[in-house]
Structure formats: structure tokens, C-alpha cells
Specification:
The complex is a heterodimer of chains A (532) and B (193). Chain A has 3 domains: 208 residues, 3-Layer(aba) Sandwich (Rossmann fold), CATH 3.40.50; 106 residues, Rossmann fold (3-Layer(aba) Sandwich), CATH 3.40.50.920; 171 residues, Rossmann fold. Helix content of chain A is 40%, strand content 19%. Chain A is built from 21 helices and 20 strands. The mean pLDDT of chain A is 96. Chain B has one domain: 3-Layer(aba) Sandwich (Pyruvate-ferredoxin Oxidoreductase, domain 3), CATH 3.40.920. Helix content of chain B is 40%, strand content 22%. Classes of the chains: A alpha/beta (532), B alpha/beta (193).
């Protein structure tokens, strides 16, 4: 038994290692990055397992699946939108017969602190008909991660562990246990792993057949707790994940303690919910993310004779993360007296490109070139350079999802936009930009892709990238872009005129061109200088 | 016994270093803690804040309720006033009076300082000159931690040990500089409160 101060993310990493992990894979993304960061440090200091960043979440997932096929334990971690990228292997892996425990950790980002949406991963677990575990604090995060491996091996299914930003990025003490040994090597049966229709139908029937076992397991999980109140037959609360903490934070201020059901496992523990519902007149549902539990409890017609309150009823906000304050109000308590901010429009301090950032120089040159093209559209992507959207640069028109800049630029060009420009980072390009560039280059669509290459995954803290500089040239040439229209520039103020000339030439070229704008991330330069 | 602290500042000012010192010191003090912080996008020169909760008993919420913070510790005055709604009516503000201006619409400083000064318990610190005195402008965060230290439920000795632990890898000189910054901050507020 050992005590550590850990982020929620790090509690997952430590637990996975101690559960007898063979390998872990991930792609950087806030708020999940610290899981792999910690695993990489552990792999260096302790050894005995592999921890690696991958080119994207789908690849990471499939690598983990290969480990499981080999009978060994694997962890794959990502941010919520990363699961969209990995959705294909995720959905289908539920039909394979998992051997080594496969734990899928997904960190949701309610309030969109660093994300483009706030989708709720519990729906994915429900969709795939697998377990979802949702811890409420650091110690539970540790315990539930370890249990997730056991559940995965017991039911031969992947298990989804759902985190949210406030748990991922909150630090507290964690007590850990001894490490167990990894599994020996074995191999899956072809009939359980080759999802030809005949096998897939049989495997899907098996998945449906064990749903009742999953439900029973969920009913007896020690992480779900029902406390029925003898003094309050009016109010019952269903709280899941960290929503439970906000309930406990406030509940002592109530005159009569309500009944509380804490839910941390899915499929939803049906009998526990029924016991609570039968004991009270009114049910308040406190859950972080979408109204997943509330929608199910309400169904199409509600519960006759019962009042259901939560996000759908407007008692809690439908968007943004929960706070102890919003839950306090939903419990019918007066807010704590506090100073009202008079200046509601206090000058905000949005994130910005760093002083000396190479992206800044690329955007300055591009903006100036595009002044001559009234229709010019800059489709952009996910990364630091997305900050180019904000004033004073205001240099990009779109940011939707990883790699979309290249595909949207192709679509835009085909619809008649000229010039149609894609701006994408080096890591985002290898993550999801290569396949659409193959598409564009094959059709030689009139568009220009600018790869802003800072040689690192910068926004998430400086993880290694797959291709920079000449390697990117080779990749683009391999994808079919004409060699003379793959140009390399160095984004520095002194090169501005020269770079603008290159941009003009490639915009005017009536086919697919690529400009690779390479200069190392200023944060990495600083880090290296510090190390010296 | 409990203490809720809002830490505020601009990305790069060492807010999370203050949090680290407080976490480690709280452990040494035998307290429980929860500390919610901001990573990722928000750190690029943007506003950074951390909710830090200390208690000798179980802590539930990772976030501090509005009106319940015992201390707002701001390394930058505009960032301090961003979280005034979290301050407990009897809470104390320990804030730098030195602005960090990286936005075009930074409000007039005197207005910001006046907003802070209307609260009953305020310590406005010239952290920049004290940090310079300590040997580096990067130690403003430790100056302010020092200035807040008399009001913490963590002993000075544990805070200094934690500062030692945080900077040990960077060499004795850096440790000494940060300890000096802490002490300068602690001296300037005196024991008059």
C-alpha cells in the first residue's frame, strides 16, 4: 500500500500498470493526455510494459485490440472526440471475444474547456452494449480502473471508463496496491475474431445474451450505493460520477436528508433505481454531461405519479459542467451569499499564440496574400493554429474536426470556392489529413494545403510528432501531389515576402499544391534551451 | 477545519507551481486536499485558475462553491477580480498589484485596484519588485505564496519543505531564490491581521 498525489488521469495510469498491463496506446488530447504522459514515465522508470503515442485514436485502439487478441492486458485512452475517430474498432470490438483485459478510457470535456463539443461517452458504451464505469473521485478512479480489467476478462468485452475534465485534471491522494503480473501470451480463436457475417451474427447474439449478466454485475457493484432515508419520503436523488460529490457537498444543508442513489456503473442498475423510485415522490437526477439517466428514467411518457427533475426539466443546465452551486440550487437551497461581479464583461484573456510562434508568421503572410482574393477561404483544423481564428489574426474560417481542413477545402473547391486553402498542423495531418490529401491529389483539385509544421504536438504539451520537414515532403509526394508543387518555407518575419510569393504561386497553380511551413514550436525551443 | 483557496493568474506565471507546493505541504501537514486545475488550451497566455481545497476531513466537490473561498491568491490583479464572486464575506484577498498586459482592452489599473480594495481584508503586494529583490521576476508566484502564508492552515516549515521539493531538481541556487521570494512576501504582510 502506497500513497501518491495524482491527477485523476494519473490514477488511471497507475492502476492500469498495477493491474498487469502489457501495453497502452493513445493520441494526445485534453483532458486525457496525462494518462499516457504518466504511463510513459512509468514505463521508463519501472519497465515491463509498453506505453506509446500513436498516429491517431483508431490506430491506438486497434493496437490495443491486437494486444488483447494475444491474451494480454491493454489500455487505450483518448479524449471524448477521439472515440469518434476510433468508433469503428470500438463498436466492432464489442463483437470480438476479448481475451486480455481491454480498457478504453475516455475523458469527456463538459463545458468544452479545450474541445469542440461536449459529447457524453456513456452513449457510446450503451451503443456498443458494453460496461461503462464512471468514478466519482480519485480513489474510485484507481479501484475502478483495476476492476475494469477484471470485468473485461470475465465477460470477454472491452470496458469503457468514463472520466470528465474535473476528475482528469484534479489532483488528490490515491492509495495504490501491489502490481500483479501480466498475462501469458495466447491467441484468440479465428471464429471469435473474424467478423464475417456468419461469425458476426453468432457473436452479436452472444453479446445480446450476456446483457442480463452485465446488468446483474452492475446491480451488485460496490461502487453503486443506495441510501434510503427514513425521514424524507419526498425527495430522492440519483447522482452519477462527480455529480455525486456536488450532492454530498450540499446535502447537509437540507433539513431532511433525502434518499440518495449513487450510480457509477452502466448498464444502469435497474433494481436499485426501482427501489429509490418506489420510496419517493420526486426524483432529482444529477449527472455530468448529457441527461443520459434522466432520458431513460423519463422514457417517452414519464413515471406516473412521480416528478422527475434534472437537466430536461430545466432544474440543472443542459450545457456546461455541473458546479456545487448549480446543484445547490437544484436541491432547493439558497446560494451562499457572495459578491456579485459588477463588471459582467470583464476584459477576457483568451488563449493566444505564443510570442515568437511560427504559426503567427505563416498567418501574417497568408492574410496579406489573400487580401487580393475576395472569395478566399481558409479551412483550418484542430491545434494551436486554431487560435489564428481570434483577433488580431482572424485568419481562419473553419475548424470542425481532426483532418477536416483538407477534405473541406476539397469540397469547397469543388463547389466553386477559389482560392480554397487548408491550414493543418503536422500532427493533425498525419492523424487524419493524409487520406483526404490522397483524395484531393488523385483528382488534382484546385486547392492549396498549408501544413504548419512546428515539429511537435504543441497544444497538448509537446508530444512527439510523426513527420516533419522532408518527411512531410515524401508523404505528400507519395500521396500523389506533383513534386514541383510541394514547397517548403520557413515562417520568419525576414522571409515574409519570399513566403508570400510561394503562396501566390501555389494558389495560382490550378491543381492540388502543398506548402510545408516548417519552424520548431517556440515552446520546444525554450524547453531545450532550459535543459542545456 | 477547512480552507478553500482560489489561485489565479496568467498562463506562465506559475499558478500550478503554487498549487503543487500547497498540495505537498498539505500532505506534510496531515491534511486532505483536492485541487482542480486547468490544462491545455487555457494555458497559452490565457487566464489560469485552480481551486484548492484543504480539510482535515473528507472533501467532496473538486470545485469551491461561490462565496466560500477563504482566500483568493492572485498573481495578477485583473485575474484576481475575475473570481471575486468566490470570496467568502470574511475571506481574504492576497493579490499582486502588478498587471500583466497581453490584451488590447486591459482595464485601467487604478480601477482594478480600487475594486479589490473595497473588500474588508486585502493584501495588495508589489510582487514584481520583491521578486526582483529575490533574484528573478519568475519568483512572483512564491512572493505571493509567502504573502498568503500567514493565513494558511499549513505551517511555514511545511511550505518551505515543499518549495524545496519542487525546485530541488533545478539546483540549490533556484531553491534559495524561491525561498527568499517566499520570505520577502511573508515579511511584507507582517502579522498585523
Amino acid at each position: 500500500m502506497k500513497k501518491d498525489v495524482l491527477l485523476g488521469d494519473e490514477a488511471v495510469a497507475l492502476a492500469a500498470f498495477q493491474a498487469g498491463l502489457t501495453a497502452a496506446f493513445s493520441y494526445p488530447g485534453t483532458p486525457a493526455s496525462e494518462i499516457m504522459e504518466y504511463l510513459i514515465r512509468l514505463a521508463r522508470s519501472e519497465g515491463g510494459f509498453k506505453a506509446a503515442w500513436c498516429v491517431n485514436e483508431k490506430v491506438a485502439y486497434e493496437e490495443a485490440l491486437g494486444v488483447s487478441f494475444a491474451g494480454q492486458r491493454a489500455l487505450v485512452s483518448m479524449k471524448h472526440v477521439g472515440l469518434n475517430v476510433a468508433a469503428d474498432p470500438f463498436m466492432n470490438s464489442a463483437l470480438t471475444k476479448i481475451i486480455g483485459g481491454l480498457v478504453v478510457v475516455v475523458a469527456d470535456d463538459p463545458s468544452m474547456h479545450s474541445s469542440q463539443n461536449e459529447q457524453d461517452s456513456r452513449y457510446y458504451a450503451h451503443f456498443a452494449r458494453i460496461f461503462c464505469l464512471e468514478p466519482s473521485n480519485h480513489q474510485e478512479t484507481y479501484e475502478m480502473t483495476r476492476q475494469a480489467f477484471d470485468l473485461s476478462e470475465k465477460y470477454h468485452l472491452p470496458v469503457l471508463l468514463r472520466l470528465v475534465t474535473r476528475l482528469s485534471h484534479s489532483r488528490s491522494e490515491v492509495i495504490s496496491r501491489d502490481k500483479r503480473a501480466p498475462n501469458p501470451l495466447q491467441r484468440g480463436e479465428w471464429s471469435d475474431w473474424t467478423l464475417l457475417p456468419a461469425n458476426a451474427r453468432r457473436r452479436f447474439t452472444e453479446l445480446l445474451n450476456i446483457q442480463k449478466d452485465l446488468l446483474e454485475e452492475s446491480e451488485r457493484s460496490p461502487f453503486n450505493r443506495l441510501s434510503l432515508s427514513s425521514s424524507n419520503s419526498r425527495l430522492g436523488i440519483i447522482a452519477s460520477g462527480i455529480g455525486y460529490n456536488y450532492v454530498l457537498e450540499n446535502i447537509n444543508s437540507l433539513d431532511h436528508q433525502p434518499s440518495v442513489l449513487k450510480i457509477s456503473t452502466y448498464p444502469l442498475p435497474f433494481n436499485l433505481i426501482r427501489q429509490l423510485v418506489e420510496a419517493v415522490e420526486e426524483i432529482l437526477i444529477v449527472e455530468e454531461g448529457y441527461p443520459f439517466i434522466e432520458e431513460r428514467l423519463r422514457g417517452l411518457f414519464g413515471l406516473p405519479g412521480k416528478k422527475i427533475r434534472g437537466k430536461l426539466s430545466g432544474d440543472l443546465p443542459l450545457t456546461g459542467e455541473l458546479t456545487p452551486d448549480t446543484v445547490r440550487t437544484a436541491l432547493g437551497l439558497e446560494p451562499f451569499s457572495h459578491h456579485e461581479l459588477k463588471d459582467k464583461h470583464l476584459a477576457s484573456r483568451p488563449p493566444q499564440l505564443c510570442q515568437g510562434c511560427p504559426h503567427h508568421d505563416t498567418f501574417i503572410a497568408l492574410k496579406e496574400v489573400l487580401k487580393d482574393y475576395p472569395q478566399a477561404t481558409v479551412f483550418s483544423d484542430i491545434g494551436c493554429y486554431t487560435l489564428g481564428a481570434l483577433p488580431p489574426l482572424s485568419a481562419i474560417d473553419t475548424c470542425v474536426c481532426m483532418g477536416a481542413s483538407v477534405s473541406m477545402a476539397k469540397g469547397g473547391a469543388e463547389a466553386g470556392i477559389f482560392p480554397s486553402i487548408a491550414v493543418i498542423g503536422d500532427s493533425t495531418f498525419t492523424h487524419s489529413g493524409m487520406t483526404p490529401l490522397l483524395d484531393a491529389a488523385t483528382a488534382n483539385v484546385n486547392m492549396t494545403v498549408i501544413i504548419v509544421d512546428n515539429a511537435v504536438v504543441a497544444m497538448t504539451g509537446g508530444q512527439p510528432t510523426y513527420a516533419t520537414g522532408d518527411r512531410l515532403v515524401q508523404i505528400c509526394a507519395g500521396l500523389g501531389v506533383a513534386k514541383e508543387h510541394i514547397r517548403q518555407i520557413v515562417p520568419l518575419p525576414k522571409n515574409k515576402e519570399k513566403n508570400m510569393a510561394v503562396m501566390r504561386e501555389e494558389i495560382e497553380y490550378p491543381g492540388t499544391s502543398v506548402i510545408i511551413s516548417t519552424r520548431e514550436c517556440i515552446q520546444e525551443v525554450k524547453k531545450r534551451a532550459k535543459r542545456r | 477545519m477547512k480552507q478553500d483557496i482560489i489561485l489565479a493568474g496568467v498562463g506562465g506565471q506559475g499558478i500550478l507551481s503554487i498549487a503543487f507546493v500547497l498540495d505537498i505541504a498539505a500532505l506534510r501537514e496531515g491534511l486532505q486536499f483536492k485541487q482542480a486545475e486547468v490544462h491545455g488550451m487555457a494555458q497559452r497566455g490565457g487566464a489560469v485558475q485552480s481551486h484548492l481545497r484543504l480539510a482535515d476531513d473528507k472533501i467532496y466537490s473538486d470545485l469551491i462553491p461561490r462565496g466560500q473561498a477563504d482566500i483568493i491568491l492572485g498573481v495578477e490583479p485583473l485575474e484576481t477580480i475575475r473570481y471575486l464572486d468566490y470570496l467568502h464575506p470574511q475571506g481574504i484577498i492576497v493579490s499582486s498589484r502588478n498587471p500583466y498586459i497581453n490584451i488590447p482592452d486591459y482595464p485601467p489599473l487604478e480601477k482594478i485596484l480600487a475594486t479589490i480594495s473595497q473588500f474588508p481584508r486585502v493584501k495588495l503586494i508589489d510582487s514584481l519588485s520583491l521578486a526582483r529583490q529575490a533574484g528573478s521576476l519568475l519568483t512572483q508566484n512564491m512572493v505571493l505564496l509567502g504573502a498568503a502564508s500567514p493565513y494558511l492552515i499549513i505551517g511555514e516549515i511545511h511550505l518551505k519543505e515543499a518549495i524545496n521539493q519542487l525546485f530541488a531538481a533545478k539546483g540549490e541556487g533556484i531553491v534559495a531564490m524561491n525561498i527568499k521570494a517566499f520570505e520577502l512576501g511573508r515579511e511584507i504582510v507582517g502579522q498585523d491581521d
